[in-house]
Automatic annotation (TrEMBL):
Gene3D superfamilies assigned to the protein according to its UniProt record, in alphabetical order: Tetratricopeptide repeat domain
SMART domains cross-referenced by the UniProt entry: TPR (SM00028)
The species this protein was found in: Streptomyces prasinosporus
Domain CHAT intervals: 621-868
Identification of the protein by name: CHAT domain-containing protein
SUPFAM superfamilies: TPR-like
Length: 870
């Protein structure tokens, strides 16, 4: 058949649909309006069908592809008909009509020859991959690649290599996948196939994740999303992959939100049934990790039904695994559930799926919960084999299985060894993460191992051992400074723009005017800042020195007591350290203490306003109940000297000075005993430079700053326009003492955007992390600066915890709203103590005592806490 110049132009629409999809669609529709030849009509309908298949309505896609097949038959071109049959077959598979799709692909293979047949084989391999038939997919690619290479077909060779790499990833062969991705990327570099290039970036992101590099995976997936956005391409597959990465980073709630949004969007356009099933599975996994078993069961159950209807056994087995795990989490354990988990595990082994150890662990865990130790052992033994190989999270699965085996066998030593090895793996994984938020959230993966170890330590009867294990997983993120944000011009530009927008939004809010556009832009900039921060790869190494109880006791001496509150099975265990020994006292239930702490916070908020003095006895009574719940019998053994409290993350807002046994005492708080030791051993910078900062909008105008400036001769005073974020950060870096009087805002929805209000906008946690060394001592005389978000296993995110790893040895901050006027005399008295050479905790104790005895001033004093040891 003669091919004209016009024919070439029409044929060029097929590669164009992946380079410039919308342009290809417009041109194909124009071809159909010109009464084309059968050959041209076939190409045009095929292009429209591909566009609808990938970006639109599957029903329209199938309609156009069937017309393309019919026109190809009328054109009398076997190769044209084979090519359309391949496209139609893939579309049928994506619509859930698996048998019809494979039949069309088989006819395409038989109808085509040479180069065309190789292209059809590639598309059948793609369909096999979608269906989870990896062996068949690799076989078809093996047959296609040499022919495509010989024909000099760069585009289709690159596609085939990308597909082969993706199949290798599914089977856990990361090195093979990376080699194929690299070869494909070299080929894409000489083409204009922008859609395929974006897909290659997305695939590299998946490979980075499989090799354990979460920051690189997030960066590459974000880059792929930007590329797709320029092409107007839906990103359903990207959402599935990003969900997996977000879960590994401890961001399960975000993963669930993204997948649910993608499902709604896919439904609205009548998109691919196969993608919907995969999105449902991703959503189920995210819900399970987010401790929402009901949602996980609903999503996984629907995914199982869709996969079964699509004859996708690989995917169905994975969905059944999530469904069984969700049922177990919901308390639906039974012998039948053990059998179901074991059957899924065996099926995953047959399929060569890396998830098989996870299924065996689940079967063993359910059996143990039912008291069927003998049944659990073989399942756990198989799962435990994964502890020495594979990516970090897979090895942790193996160590969890080994720990459960040891517990079932009654071996405390075995439990502790398995937990130690598993948490070591997690530590290595965490330190690849540069962002402190990701490091904190990633610790959630170790919560079970840490809890198992603490139970074993408690049963073995040694308080020292329980202290060591309480420290092993407590505030681990603070053990090393976070990776400093890079000198990234785009990140710095985003942060500057964010301050400007946030300042305008605050001004508009104060005027009572609506500001939807400003709020949208602020949210967009927050997402951009956070995204670029999460891309940072870890550089700092963890603290290799293990926690040393003897070193702690030596530093405490005979006068100082440190009380670490460990929580085992919901019960508070007070570990009292001092006088060369560690003693354990059992206190109350954590849940009851949390409830009481909320009552105290509510009372302090009321007492911050004049006329609420009637609430004082209620708050004091709540303080007595808190002491019983948190310290129990340990309260009678605190001695006469200073006390350091190391609470669990969920109790860091407790106003410890309110507790009767601590009210007249020097008391400080630390996220961990290790953190207190580091603070104690931190040396102040030379020169002892002092910085006083006064932000805008304070009820008193920041009155204490003016008076402190007169007292601290030579101090740097930043106020009015000088109190800008860049200037404040420059002066804070390496200062000996900093005092910041500014409005504080704690963001429960984004703790890293908790802020202090400066003249040009908010000074956020991300800003503090840019400091080379934070001030040796810092006083934050504003509301909510000592509030934290508890994430991961027992980690804290907030202003104070951003400072502690960066060189700050002591912080005074506030955990509740306070009366600005009442703060002024407290701060002045606090600085008097510092001028006399007292450390922050002692100066704060004396400052409270110097206040008037009325309820307003007493509540103000209780609301401030000293952190650290300086």
């Amino acid at each position: 058949m003669e091919v004209t110049a016009g024919s070439n132009a029409v044929q060029d629409l097929l590669p164009l649909v992946f380079a410039a999809p919308n342009e290809a669609l417009t041109k194909a529709e124009a071809v159909l309006r010109r009464r084309p030849t059968p050959l041209h009509a076939s190409v045009a309908h095929q292009v429209i069908g591909i566009w609808q298949r990938d970006f639109g309505d599957m029903r329209l896609a199938l309609r156009h592809l069937r017309r393309a097949r019919n026109w190809a038959a009328r054109a009398g071109s076997a190769d044209r008909e084979a090519d359309v049959l391949a496209t139609l077959g893939v579309a049928l598979v994506h619509s859930g009509r698996t048998r019809q799709g494979l039949d069309a692909l088989g006819r395409g293979v038989r109808r085509g020859a040479g180069h065309t047949r190789a292209r059809v084989l590639f598309r059948r391999a793609y369909a096999w991959w979608v269906l989870g038939h990896h062996k068949e997919a690799l076989e078809d690619v093996r047959r296609a690649v040499p022919v495509l290479r010989q024909a000099g077909d760069v585009i289709w060779t690159a596609r085939a290599l990308t597909l082969r790499a993706t199949v290798h990833l599914a089977l856990g062969a990361v090195e093979r996948a990376e080699a194929d991705f690299a070869s494909a990327e070299d080929l894409w570099a000489v083409t204009d196939q922008e859609h395929d290039k974006a897909d290659a970036v997305e695939s590299r992101g998946l490979a980075a994740f499989r090799s354990g590099d979460v920051p690189a995976a997030l960066r590459l997936l974000d880059e792929a999303e930007e590329r797709y956005a320029k092409l107007g391409t839906p990103t359903f597959m990207l959402s599935i992959r990003r969900c997996e990465v977000l879960m590994a980073a401890g961001l399960a709630a975000e993963a669930l939100a993204e997948t649910d949004t993608a499902i709604a969007e896919l439904d609205s356009i009548g998109g691919q049934s196969t993608r919907k099933a995969e999105l449902l599975l991703a959503a189920a996994r995210a819900a399970r990790q987010a401790d929402d078993p009901a949602t996980a069961m609903a999503r996984a159950g629907l995914a199982v039904r869709l996969f079964a209807g699509q004859r996708r056994t690989w995917w169905e087995a994975h969905a059944r695994l999530v469904l069984i795990g969700a049922r177990h989490a919901a308390g639906k354990g039974s012998g039948r559930l053990v059998a179901d988990a074991a059957a899924v595990a065996e099926r995953l082994v047959e399929l060569g799926a890396p998830a098989a150890p996870e299924a065996y662990l689940l079967a063993g865990r359910i059996a143990l919960d039912l008291g069927r130790t003998a049944d659990a052992e073989p399942y756990l033994a198989v799962a435990a084999r994964s502890r020495h190989n594979g990516p970090p999270l897979a090895r942790m699965t193996g160590w969890a299985a080994q720990a459960l085996r040891a517990r079932a066998a009654g071996s405390t030593r075995g439990v502790l060894e398995a937990c130690r090895r598993g948490l070591d793996v997690l530590d290595d994984h965490r330190m690849t993460l540069g962002a402190s938020e990701l490091r904190a959230r990633a610790t959630a993966r170790g919560a079970e191992l840490a809890a198992l170890a603490q139970r074993a330590a408690l049963r073995s009867g040694g308080p020292r051992r329980l202290l060591v294990w309480s420290e092993r997983w407590r505030a681990t993120v603070l053990s090393a400074p976070p990776t400093r944000p890079p000198a990234d011009p785009e990140l710095l530009s985003h942060m500057t723009a964010y301050r400007e927008i946030a300042a305008r939004a605050e001004e508009t809010r104060m005027e009572g005017r609506p500001m939807p556009a400003l709020e949208r832009e602020q949210r967009r900039l927050e997402r951009a800042i956070r995204s670029r921060t999460l891309h940072m790869r870890g550089e700092a190494h963890g603290d290799d020195a293990r926690f040393d109880v003897d070193r702690l006791l030596e530093r405490l001496g005979d006068r100082v007591r440190l009380v670490e509150l460990a929580v085992v099975d919901g019960r508070v265990q007070a570990l009292l350290c001092g006088q060369g020994r560690v003693r354990r006292f059992e206190a109350g239930w954590l849940a009851a203490a949390e409830t009481e702490a909320e009552h105290v916070q509510a009372g302090l908020r009321r007492l911050a306003h004049p006329g609420a003095q009637a609430r004082l006895p209620v708050v004091e009574a709540a303080g007595r109940r808190l002491e019983e719940l948190l310290l129990g019998p340990a309260a009678a053994h605190l001695g006469e000297g200073p006390v350091v409290i190391v609470p669990p993350g969920r109790l860091h807002r407790v106003p410890w000075a309110l507790l009767p046994s601590l009210r007249e005492r020097v008391v400080s708080v630390s996220p961990s005993a290790s953190s207190w030791l580091r603070a104690r051993e931190t040396r102040p910078p030379r020169g002892g430079r002092k910085v006083l900062v006064r932000g805008p909008g304070l009820a008193t105008g920041g009155a204490e700053v003016t008076r402190l400036a007169a007292r601290h001769g030579g101090a740097t005073v930043l106020e009015h326009g000088d109190a800008s974020v860049p200037r404040v950060l420059a002066e804070l870096d390496g200062a000996g003492l900093a005092h910041i009087a500014a409005h504080g805002t704690f963001r429960t929805d984004g703790p890293m955007f908790s802020s202090l209000r400066m003249a040009d906008g908010p000074l956020i946690v991300h800003d503090f992390e840019r400091l080379g060394r934070s001030p040796y001592r810092i006083i934050l005389s504003c509301c909510d600066t000592a509030r934290f978000a508890t994430v991961g296993a027992d980690e804290l995110l907030g202003l104070v915890t951003a400072l502690l790893p960066l060189g700050t040895a002591g912080v005074v901050a506030c955990s509740a709203p306070v009366n600005d006027a009442a703060v002024v005399p407290l701060m002045l008295a606090l600085h008097e103590g510092l001028a006399a050479g007292l450390p922050l905790p002692e100066a704060l104790r004396d400052a409270r005592a110097a206040l008037p005895a009325d309820p307003l001033h007493r509540a103000t004093g209780w609301s401030f806490t000293a952190f650290g040891a300086a």
